[in-house]
Design a protein that fits this description.
This protein is of the alpha+beta class. It is built from 21 helices and 27 strands. Helix content is 41%, strand content 24%.
Amino acid sequence: MSFLIKQPELLLTAALALALLAGLLLHLRARKQNRRREQELARANEDAQRRLRSSMSDTRAMLDQGSAVIMVFDRVTLTLLFANRQALELFDCDTVEQLSDTVLMRPDAWQPSPYSLLDFERWTSQLKASGFLRQEWLFSASAKAGIWMDCYLSNTVFEGRPARTLSANNIHAYKMNQAANKLRNRILTGINSSAPMENLADSLCKLAEIRLQNTRCLITRYDQQRDSLTPLGNSGLAKAFRETLPAIPARYGSTSIGTAAYTRNRTLCESILDDHRWQGYTRVVADLGLRASWSEPIVSQRDELLGVVTVFSHRPRNPDEQQLDDLASIVSLTGLAIERKQWQRAMEAAAASERFIRQMGVDLVNLPSGEEFEPNLRYLLHRVVSHYELGALALWERGGDDQAFACLATIRHNTPDTAHAENPGAAIQPIAGQVVTNMLQDSPAEYLTPQDALYDRIRLSDEPKPILLTALNDEQGENSFIGFLAVQSRFIYIAQATIDHLQVIGSMVRTVLLNRRLVHSLASDVENEQRQRKKLEGELSVARSIQMSMVPGAGHFREQYRNWTIEAWLQPARAVGGDLYELIRLPSGNLLIAVGDVSDKGAPAALFMARTVSLLNYLARSMDGDLAGIARALNNELCRSNEACMFVTMVMGVLELGTGEIKWLNAGHNAPMFVDNKTSPKLWPGNPAAPFGVYEDVDYAVASAKIGPDQSITLYSDGVTEAFDQNGQEFGEERLLNLGYRAANQGEGLLTYMREQLLSFAGSAPQSDDITLLTIQRHGTIHSVERDSSKHPAENS
C-alpha cells in the first residue's frame, strides 16, 4: 500500500483500468439489453405483420363473398387498388390492372352517353372527408355492352392507405325495364296522337333491342298491291335494307321475312349463312355482321297480313322462351300501330274518295249526250285511273240486239287525259255475252289470270297481271249485265277498299249507261243539243199530261154527292212532280182518299209517283179498303228495287159516306186539318209512322174519326205550309189553321177560297215545291149528285 502511495502513477493507472473495465461491463450489459429488446420488437413486428396479412386476406375474402360489386380506389390518385371477384366477372377481366386499364380508366371504353370518364372523376372528387355519394352510372361491360350500376362512394383506409370504396349493385334489368316502359308509353302516346309511322317504327325497334339484348330489329310493312314488304324507319339497319333490298317478295324462300309473310308463321333461322331461306340474300346481312334471324308475321284482327317484325343476332343462336314472349309483345304493339295508321289513312282515303265519288256522280250525271258522250266518259274514267293509281281500266257495254259486249273505252295510266284522246279500245273485238255472264253470275267481282281463256280477249297491257272484272247489273235481274269494268293494277293486286269504291263508281256508270240507252230510245234521231232540249220539253209536257191524268180530274177535281163535297187541286212546281192525290171507290161502296208527297222533285219523283199511284189503285181494290194491309203491301213494294232510296209520305183514309166514319193512317205526312164551325180548326195528330219505301215490313197504326154535318177535313202536302212569299216568309201551319176557319163560311167553296188565299200570299215568288190540297166537306143538307166531267171515283159506283 505504501508502495502504491509512494508511486501515484501506478495508482492512477489502476483506477483508470478499473474505470475502463466497469465501463466495458456496462456497455456489454446495455448492448445485451438492446439486442434482447430488438429481438422482442422484431417478434412483435412480425406478429403484427402476420396479423395484418391475415386481416387483409380476411377483408378481401369477405369482399369477394358479398353479392355487391366492390372496388377500392386510391383517395389521391384514383388508382384502382382492389376489385372483388364480382367486379372482375361483371367486367370480364382477370386482374385488377386489366379492369383499370381496359375499362375504368380508358376514356374510349366508356359508353357514348350519358357519362364519360371525366364525369366519373369529377364525381369522386366531390366526396368530402365524411359522408358518402350515391349515383347511377352506366359502365361498359363485356363486348362493350352497357350495364347500369347503383353506386355508393365512401372514404376508407385500405391496407394502411387512404382510399375510397365504390360499392355498386347491378340495376341493369331494372333500368332496362324502366326504359322499356317509358318507351312503350311513348309509343302508345305516339299511336294515339298519329305520330309518323317511321318514327313509331324506330321506337318499336329500339324497344325490341332493349328487351332482346345484343340484337338488331327491323320492321317491314306489307304492300298488298305489290305483294311485297318494305322496310320501315330511319335506323341504320332499315336504311341498309332499303339500299340493298328495298322490296322483299312475300313468298317462301325470300329471306326469313318473306317466308314468314307467306306462311303467316314464325320463322327462326339459327344460322343465316347455312339457311336455305336466306340463299341469295346473305350478302345483305353478312356485311352487317348479322348471323341469326327470328321473323314474326304481324296479322290483324281480320286475319290480314300487315307486316313482319324481324330480330337479328350477331351470333348463330335460337331465342329462348322469354325472348319469344318479348318478341310477341313487340309484334302485338307493332300491329296496333300499323292498324291505327291504316285506319287513319283509310278514313282519310274514304273521305277523299267520298268527295271524289260525289263529284264523279255529278259529272257522270251531267255527261253530254251524242257524239261528246264517249270522249267525256273517257276523260272521267281517266280521272278514276289517276285517283286510284290504277294501271288500266276498260268499260265494256252489252249491245242492244246481239247481246255481245263491246269495249266502250280503254284507259291506261300513261295515256293522255284529254276528252278527245284516241280510244284504244275501239279496235277490240266484241265478246259473246254468255261468256261474261257465266263468269260473273256467282260473284260481282272476279279476277282473270293469264291462264283463263277470256284473258287475251280483255288484255289491258303486255304484262301478265291479273285483271279484275266488276259487273254492271241491268234492271232486269241480278244475272243480267249491261256491262262490266275491267281493271288492272299498276302492280299486282288491287286493294279491297279500292275495289269497293270501283263498285260504287260502277253502279253510277251503270246508271249513266241505262240513262243513255233511255235517251237514245226516246231521241234516236236527235242531231244536236237544241233539238234534244226541244224534244225533251215536249216529252216533259207529255209526261206532265200523263202524270196529271193519273190523278182524278187531272189536277182539278170536284164532286158533290148527297151532302158531301170533295175537291182536290194539284200544282207541280216543275213540269212533272212528286205530289199525288187519289180517290178510289171501293167494292164495298166506301171511298179511299189519299194525299202523298214523293221525296225529291222533277222526273225521278214523277216516276216514283206513277209507280205509287198504280200500286195504290191495285192494292186498294184487291184488299177492299183494308188500310193496314194496303199500307204494309204498298210500303214493301216501294222498298223493293229502290236503289235511288226514294220514299213517299202519305195520309190515307177510308170514308164511309153514309155515316161519315173515317179510318185513316199517317205515313210520315203532314197532319190533316179538321174544321168544325163550332170550334177552332185543329190538326189530327194521329200516330205517324215511317214513310212508304224506307223500311220493309212496317206496321201502320189505323186511327178512327167521324166527320159530322158542317165539318170538313183538309189533306195537303208540305208545299202548302212551306210556300214562301216574295220576302221569304213561310206560309206555315198557323196561317193554314186561320185560313181553314175563314174558309168554312165562304160561298165559293172551301178549296177554292184556300187556293186563292195561298196564291195571293205567294204572289210572284217562284213556287218551291209541289202543292196539293184535298178537302172533304160534309154539309148539313143533302145535295144532288154532281160529277166532274173528268176522272172521279163515282164513275165505278
